[in-house]
Amino acid sequence: MEETISLKELFLTLKKRLSLIIIITAIATATSGIVSYFVLTPIYQSSTQILVNQSKNDQQAAYNVGEVQTNLQLINTYNVIIKSPAILDKVIEKENLEISAGALNGLVTVGSEQNSQVVNITVQNEDPQKAAAIANSIATTFKEEISTIMNVDNVSILTQAQLGENPSPIKPQPALNMVIALVVGLMAGVGLAFLLEYLDNTIKNEQDIENQLGLPVLGAITTINMEGEMKEQNSKTTLPRTRGESVGS
After folding, report:
1. pLDDT per residue over 16-34, tens digit each?
2. Which of 21, 28, 29, 125 could form a disulfide with 189 if both were Cys (CB 3.0 to 4.6 A apart)?
3. Do 77 and 182 reside in the same domain of the chain?
């Protein structure tokens, strides 16, 4: 016999396990909030921008298309040099950082806009002031060392990293984490509710008997509360006697 699940049965299952779904969703949301606010360390971000061109003499004062294309092709090379130990080791020495060049490399992101000679240097750190200082130090060190590495002496720092009055961390984001946890907890609660309902093979009504045995139900035996029935009968028989005695008297 083919089993079908109606929409009504789905709603009844959700209603039956509603408390379980609410508890799981609340626990997941609360756990995410506690971890985001009290466990995870806030990370701050600071950025600076530099512009790198090839060296120019007085006879090459005007830009041409070929030179711009060459500079654009060199941007990827500059990005690698900025994150190389040749630059980061000097930054560590200048800023008295107690980390290795590899660890600092993981905190630094270098990129450029499409078809642009502007390089963005972004640094993430637990201390917002230190993040800005490292970003500025990387830009300055690159400007000082690139002339030796690649014979490029036309580096301009467009924007220095600055520390705002009330810097806000870029991660974690407690509100977003809690929303995600709420959705995941709700899905987990609903899934667990249907799983428990699927594993529950107890017979509760006539429909369950038909589904399990594939036979029609001919009759049903109801549960009789004998104590309640006796009290009800006693109350019915006692009431007329009381009335009769009052008339006779």
Report:
1. 899 999 999 999 999 999 9
2. 21
3. no
Quote the CA–CA distance of 210 and 217 in Å, as a whole number: 7
Residue 10 CA: distances (Å) to CA of 85, 197, 199 = 61, 10, 15
Q: Determine contact, residues 209/217, Cβ cutoff 8 Å.
A: yes
Question: pLDDT for 182-209, tens place per residue?
Answer: 999 999 999 999 999 888 777 666 676 6
3-state secondary structure of 118: strand
Residues in Cβ contact with 208 at an 8 Å cutoff, skipping those fewer than 6 apart? 202
Tokens at 127, concatenated: 């201390």
Are 132 and 188 in the same domain?
no
CATH number of residue 94's parent domain: 3.30.70.1130
Q: Which distant-in-sequence residues (6+ apart) come within 8 Å of 176 by Cβ?
A: none
Which two three-digit tokens encode residue 221? 């035996």
CA distances from 33 to 41, 134, 175, 189 (A): 13, 31, 8, 18
